[in-house]
Amino acid sequence: MFKNFIIRSHIKRSLKRKKQFASWEKIKNISLIISNEQLNKSALDKFIIDSGKLVEVILIDIKNKQSAIKDYTTFVSADKSVLGLPKTKSLNKIKNKTADLVMVAADDKEEFATVLAANINTPCVCGCNQINNNLDLIIIRKENQTVIDYLNEVVNYLKMIKN
Questions:
Q1: 112 CB contacts (<8 Å, ≥6 apart)?
Q2: Which residues of 40-53 are buried (b: 16+ CB within 10 A; e: fewer)?
Q3: Has residue 161 got a pLDDT over 90?
Q4: pTM (2 d.p.)
């Protein structure tokens, strides 16, 4: 119950932002939240290059004390509270981040990812698992769909938005 209160309080602050959908062509920078269990780094690097966007990867690697991947903003076990959410001081890593779009693809760490997404200044958050009305755009992830296939599907939907 207390955990849900904390999640809702983060989301409530983020809902004060002006929501707007942007077409793929107008999106310049993306914050991508992903978990280490889903990570295929070479495939993800290819997706980032092919996107033609400035993509910052926020990696949830809370099973490890230290992440082997240094070129991403990483959250490790020391960043996790007893409730399984990001510690307040750990959120300083992303406190001043802004993005045209936040893509949440960490469905196995959805509560942790939800709090992270709520703390990034963005007009649009998309993902596959809605928690307390935290997503502006929901693209359901198919069973056994790889993260890269899911991200490509999200991009296809974003290309359909015209504004």
A1: 60, 62, 75, 80, 84, 85, 86, 106
A2: eeeebeebbeebeb
A3: no
A4: 0.89
